[in-house]
Write a structure and sequence with these properties.
The chain is mainly β. It contains 2 helices and 8 strands. It has a single domain, classed as OB fold (Dihydrolipoamide Acetyltransferase, E2P) (Beta Barrel). A 4-stranded antiparallel beta sheet has the order 1-8-6-3. The protein has a 4-stranded antiparallel beta sheet with strand order 5-4-2-7, with no helix packed on it. The longest helix is centred in the first third of the chain and has 8 residues.
Length: 103
C-alpha cells in the first residue's frame, strides 16, 4: 500500500448507528427519515446529521462532537438512504477529513 493511500485512508471517518437509548439492542430497528447532509457537503462537529424513527419515537442524530471528529469533514458516501431500516452499529456514512484552511 502506498504512503498516499495510507494517508488518505487514515483521514476517513465512518459513522455507525449509535445506541440511541439505554435499552436499545441489535434487533431494534431504526428507520432513517431524513439526511440533513448530502454527498460532498462539509459536516462540522455537532451539526445536524440525520433524523430517525425508533420504537420509542423520533430521534435526531447530530455529527459526533469536536473531540471525536477533530474538525470539519467532507461527506464522501451516504451508505444507507432515506427510508432504510438500520440496526445498532450499521455503517451509515463515510466522511473524509479536510484541511482547516479548505473549510
Amino acid at each position: 500500500m502506498s504512503t498516499k493511500t495510507q494517508k488518505q485512508q487514515a483521514k476517513e471517518y465512518s459513522i455507525r448507528l449509535p445506541q440511541l437509548f439505554q435499552q436499545m439492542t441489535e434487533p431494534d430497528a431504526v428507520t432513517i427519515l431524513k439526511w440533513h447532509v448530502k454527498e460532498q457537503d462539509i459536516l462540522r462537529p455537532g451539526a445536524p446529521l440525520l433524523s430517525t424513527e425508533t420504537c420509542i419515537g423520533y430521534i435526531d442524530i447530530p455529527a459526533p462532537p469536536r473531540q471525536m471528529m477533530r474538525g470539519a469533514h467532507r461527506v464522501i458516501r451516504i451508505v444507507e438512504p432515506e427510508g432504510a431500516t438500520v440496526y445498532l452499529n450499521d455503517l451509515l456514512i463515510v466522511l473524509q477529513a479536510i484541511d482547516s484552511g479548505a473549510a
